[in-house]
Protein 1
Amino acid sequence: MQIRYVLAALRKHRLATFLITLQISLACAVLCNAYFLIMQRIESMHIDSGIAEPSLALVKITGYDQQQAQDLNARMVAALRGVAGVQNVSVVSAVPFGNGGVRAGVHLDPQQKQSGGVIDFYLGDAAAIQTFGLRLIAGRLPSRDEYTPLTQLFPANPPILITKKLAAKFWPGKDPLGQQFWVTNTAFRVIGVIDHLSTVYPSISAEEDPDWTVFVPTSSGAGFDGKYLIRGNPGDMARILNDAKTITQKTVPNLILDLEASKRMEDLRSEFFENSRIMLGLLLSLIVGLLGTTALGIIGLANFWVSQRSKHIGIRRALGATKGDILRYFQIENFIIVTLGILLGMLFAYELNLGLMRLYELPKLPLIYMPVGAIVLWILGQLAVLAPALSASSISPMTAIKSA
C-alpha cells in the first residue's frame, strides 16, 4: 500500500525525482570506479618484489670509461665487501623500484612469428641470486661457467631463470625447463624457475603482469657495471649504506656517486609509490566529497518534501497512520529513488570504465564493485533521509492541519 502512495507522489514531482536520481547515478558511477582505482593502487603498493628488500641497498656510480668497467667492478665489489656488516655484494643491471633495467619484446619461435610480449630482464653476476634472495622452485641455478659477458644487450644465448608466472604465460600446462624464447638472434634457454621477481616498474595493469621477468647470469664487463647491490642485516642497512657511500667516494674519488639511486630498497619502494599515495588521498577525498554532496542533496529534497506534505501527513496521522508508517513512507520513497539512481549509475560506471581503459590502459571494472557501490549508496540514502523522516513522523495531526 505504501509503495502505491510513494509512486503516485513521485510521479507528481518528476523533475525533482529525476534530478536527485541523476545525482545518485553519477555518484554511483564515480564511486565504483574510484573504489576500483583505490583497490588497484593498494594492490600495486603491496606487490611482492620477490627479493629481500629490508636487507638490501643499491649503490650506483657514473662518469667512468666503459673500457674500465671490469676493473671498476672488481674494485667496487672488493671495497663494498670490506664495509662492516656487508654479507654480499653483486653487480646487477637493475633492481625493482629503481631506474634502468632491460625491457625487450620476445618471440617463442626462432622464426620470430609468435610474439611472447614485452618482459623485463635482470642481469646479475654469480652472487646476485643469493644477494637478491631469489627462491628457486624448479630446475637448477646457473653454474659458474654459465656467467658470460655481454655481447650486445645480452650474453650470447644464455641460460636463464624465469618466474613461474611468466613460464605459465609462455608455456601453459607444459614444463618450462629446457624451453626457449628469442630476442632477435639471441636464444634464451630456461634452466630454472623462480617464485617471484617483479619488474623494475611494477604495476597492476590489463596488459602485463608485474612478475613477467627473467634473470640472466652475466659476468662483469662493459655494459654491465656501475650498479652494486649490497646485502646485510635489515637493522644495519642505514649504517651500511652510509659507510658504503663513504667507501665508494674513497675508492673511486674521480667518479660520480648517484645519490638519487643509491638508497635502501625500502626507500626506493617508498619513493616509487609516492605518487600512488597522493592519488589514494585524492581519490578518497573525491569519494568523501561526492558522498557528502549526494547526502546533502537527499536531505535537502527530503526536507522540502516534508514541508510540502505537512497537511497530507497530518491527514494520514488523523486517519490512524502511526509514526512508524510515516517514517517507513519516506524510507521507501528514498529507497526507490536511490535504486533508480544505482541502476542508471551502473551503466554510467561501465561507460566510465571503458573510457578509462582506452585512456589509461586500466583493467576492466570487475562486477563485484557494482554491488559494493550500491550498498554504500543505499546505506547513505537511508541515513540521509532519517532525520527528515523522523521530523515528518513527529508532526501531530492538529499542528499539520492548522499550519496548512
Protein 2
Amino acid sequence: MSKKTYIQAITDALRLELGSDEKTLIFGEDVGKNGGVFRATDGLQAEFGEDRVFDTPLAESGIGGLSIGLALEGFRPIPEIQFLGFIFETLDSIAGQMSRERFRTGGTRHMPITIRSPYGGGTHTPEMHADSLEGYLAQIPGLRVVTPSNPYDAKGLLISSIRNNDPVFFLENLKLYRSMKADIPDEAYTVPLDKANVVREGTDITLIAYSAQVNQSLKVAEKLEKEGISVEVVDLRTLSPLDEETILKSVEKTGRAVAIQEAQRQAGIAANVASLIAEKGALYLSAPVGRVSAPDTVYPFGLAEDDWLPAEDEIEAKTREILNY
C-alpha cells in the first residue's frame, strides 16, 4: 500500500498492464521520452522500450487510425489524446469506426482500445485544453466512457478498461492530477466498469456527480450534516452506460435528487440522469430533480474560468432549493 496522487495511480496502472501483457502499447504526442505533458507515462519508455511506448506525429486523426489497425491485429492499444479538446480530429475513428466494429462484424471482432485524455477546468489552461466533452462521447453507441474521481478508482478503473475488449474513453480530470492523494494497493486490482459508487450514505437527498464534482458534492454533504441534513452522494464512475439501478435505488431512498456536471447544461450527462429519474423513478420523487452545470457558452478564457465553472456554493444552493421545495 502506498500513498499516491491521482496521476501516480494512473502511471501505476499503465506500468502494471504493460508488464503483464506484451500486446499492450502506449502511444501519443510526447508520451515517450518526455513521459507525456503531465508525466503520466514518465519512465515507461525507458522500462518497456520504444516499440511498446512511442511518440506519434502531432496528428490526432492518425492516432485514432493507428489504434484501430493495431486492435485488428491483436494488440491492446492505449493511445493518449493530449487534451480532450483535441478529439475533434479523431472523431471519425472513434464514432465512425472503432465503436461500431462489434456491431458491424456481428461480435466477431473486438476493439480493446483505451483512449486516455485529460479534461476539466480549474487550472487556467489555454483554449481547448479544459473542455468537458463527455456528453459528446457518451452519445456514441458502442463506446464506454469512464472517469474516476479519486486515485484508488483511477488505478482500478484504468486496469479494468485496458483489460476490456470494447473501446473505452478514459477521462482524467486535470485538476485532480496532483491535488489529492490516497492509499492504494501496490499490486494490480480492478474496479468494476459500469457500476456507480455510493461514496456517502444519506437519507434526505441524493447528489449524483462524477469526477471533480464528486469531491465538491462531498464537501457540501459534510457542511449540511452539521445542520442535521443527511446527504447521499453517488459517484457515477462510468458515464456510458449509466448504472441505472444504483441511481434509482438511491432516489427511491431519499426522494430528492440533484444531478451535477462541470460541462455545459444542454444535452449533458446531468440531463440524462434527470431524464432517467423522470422516466423510471418519478413516483419516488418529493420534488423535481435539480441540476447544476456550467452555462451554455463556449469555455471561457482563464480569467473568467472561476466564474464559469459550477462551484460548491451553487451545489449547496441547489441542494437547499430541492430540499425546501
